[in-house]
Known about the structure:
Chain B: GO terms for molecular function: ABC-type polyamine transporter activity; ATP binding; ATP hydrolysis activity. Chain B: The complex is composed of two ATP-binding proteins (PotA), two transmembrane proteins (PotB and PotC) and a solute-binding protein (PotD). The complex is a heterodimer of chains A (276) and B (352). Chain A is mainly alpha-helical and 276 residues long. Chain A has a domain at 50-227: MetI-like fold. Chain A has eleven helices and no strands. In chain A, 33% of the residues are buried. Chain B is of the alpha+beta class and 352 residues long. Chain B is 24% helix and 34% strand. Chain B has helices at residues 42-50, 92-102, 107-120, 136-148, 166-183, 194-200, 218-223, 228-233; strands at 4-13, 16-26, 31-35, 57-62, 65-66, 77-80, 154-158, 186-191, 203-208, 211-216, 238-246, 251-254, 257-260, 272-277, 292-303, 307-314, 317-324, 337-342, 348-349. Chain A binds chain B through residues 157-158, 161-162, 164-172, 175, 179-180, 183-184, 186, 255-257, 262, 265-266, 271-276, and chain B through 50-52, 71-79, 81, 83-91, 98-99, 102-103, 128-130, 132-136, 139, 143, 146-147, 150, 156, 163. Bound molecules: adenosine-5'-diphosphate and magnesium ion. The site of magnesium ion has 3 residues of chain B, from helix 1. Magnesium ion (MG) binds at residues 42-43, 159 of chain B.
Amino acid sequence: MKISRIVSLVIVLIAASYFLVPLYATFQFSLQMLRGQWSFQAYRSVFADPNFLSTLSYSAVTSLVAILISTLIVVPTTYWVRLKMPRVKPVVEFITLLPLIIPPIVIVFGYLRLYGSDSLLPLTVSSAGTNLMLVIGYATLSLPYVFRSVDNGMQTLDIRTLTEAAESLGANRSTIIFRVILPNLRAAIVSGAFLTFSISFGEFVFASLLNRPAFGPYLVQIGQDRAYEPAALAVLSFALTWACMVLMQIFANAKPGASRRRRGAAFNPLARRKTA
Amino acid sequence: MSFLTIAKASKSYGATTVVRDFDLAVGKGEFISFLGPSGCGKTTVLRMIAGFETPSAGHISIDSRDVTLTAPNRRRIGMVFQAYALFPNMTVAENVAFGLKVAGADRATIEARVKDMLALIHLEHLAERYPYQMSGGQQQRVALARALAPKPQVLLLDEPLSALDAKIRVSLREEIRAIQKQLGITTVFVTHDQEEALSISDRIVVMNGGRADQIGTPFEIYNRPATRFVASFVGTLNLIDVTVADPAAGTVKIGEQIVTLKEVLAASSGETVTLALRPESGSILDGARGDTALTGEVVSSNFLGSVVRTRMRVGESLISFDMFNSPGFAPPALGERVTLRFSAADLLVLRD
Lengths: 276, 352
Ligand SMILES: Nc1ncnc2c1ncn2[C@@H]1O[C@H](COP(=O)(O)OP(=O)(O)O)[C@@H](O)[C@H]1O
Ligand SMILES: [Mg+2]
């Protein structure tokens, strides 16, 4: 009993050090830009680079648009499939897995062939068209995560019965979707959104092959040209991703009413009674 | 004049027919139960009334209006589900208000109506709670209030008590019946629990394999089951196979003993028919009344407190009978020969 606990603790520590030691080493290295002293000089230098902020905001905006696109595609599709066509669910599931199976480089080359300058729909000739291709690509990459997250949300929600309950009370489709389904899927949508964000924010392959001024290619560029700044950037993007995950957890566990700051019942864990 | 009419409704999924030729006329304010084993099509009929399923054949009308093809949100139906199905993102008050809001009622009307509804289910003090903060019984009462708030024409309940524990099940079913009577709302209640159906319904529809086997008051269903299925599903019943002696005179043989029935038999002499007898119809006490007697050997006798349940063998058949406990009556011993007296009118000839 005691021994097995010690063994599992050691295993956890080894596994954790596997992640934490390189992180710590990177962080320490990022503080050594000035010889013989600790400083945040590398960070100062990163923030002073105008390309840093421009690529960062470019990637933030494209990621947000990708979130919007994937949510707008996935939520109604999943709802409809669960409600009306449960038989095609395995097919949809398979399709959403494809971005994990097909390497991004294959997908993006496919896009370039399909929408290149000599195609029927030449998206690559304009900057706006290429931006569109990029966000569509990001939405594609995020599909497995967003779908699973939303689908799980609907699973626990029993959307079918909720839909029927609302229908029998006189509600039409849009009322049901906006007043009943979406509010209850908030946690699932938000966690899908954060996953999309963390995937597309530092994404390299799509952005680089489409030649977009995004954060991923910028990271790689800096990595080739400089010594200390890449370490600082790595720590910064780690912090950002981590913040995304924390926010995701907070949203995913939030219960309705908790945000209304009602003391007592809403906050009292004893008042929460689970019913089958 | 019936208020809710189902005429020759059938429902098939591909090649399998799950409801066939279902006919029912429900009067205004009547409380009807659909009773039957799992999978017999109760939910399917209910969902056709609600509009969630379209009948493959037949018609449904409410208040003389054909609603067979009307969308569920235009039928003015109140529905209560087994799984409560409250909206998790809304408080109790918001849940109850939902139907009224959708219908475009003004604020004051909504507030007043929500208050009335919460008073009806005695949950005024929980108006600001969320569903996850309540017990199953409380949630189901809220679901009832939510369904009733927009004043539906018909209230449908699909096994609303199945997920609750026994005690709450009994108290809530009485509450449902009381509220139904108070509002006078036409109600269809689905259950697989015969005691539930018998105790709260005006009439019961006993369903079997997608058909209505018998429609009648609880008293009729229990005492005059029309089919073998109804007889075996509702209450406990002795099924006794007998040989017809003289069909015109209504005499049959049970082992060597002759019994004269109150009716002429359609079968011919020598054929086997099945009779049914409720365990509570007879007595073995001295001086028990009854025009018919059967003598047999006691094979088991169980003391159940208020009731003594005894089984005796007559010819090939085992017959159980229940008698109330009384201090002056000792349960019969194993192997003892006893004579059970009952009225021949209590013997039912079953058709299949
Ligand atoms: N959508 C469906 N597709 C195919 N079969 C169904 C469907 N819904 C119900 N059934 C079948 O219809 C029969 C009756 O179901 P149901 O009305 O739910 O029974 P009950 O409510 O009496 O338990 C069952 O055998 C069930 O498998
Ligand atoms: Mg059912």
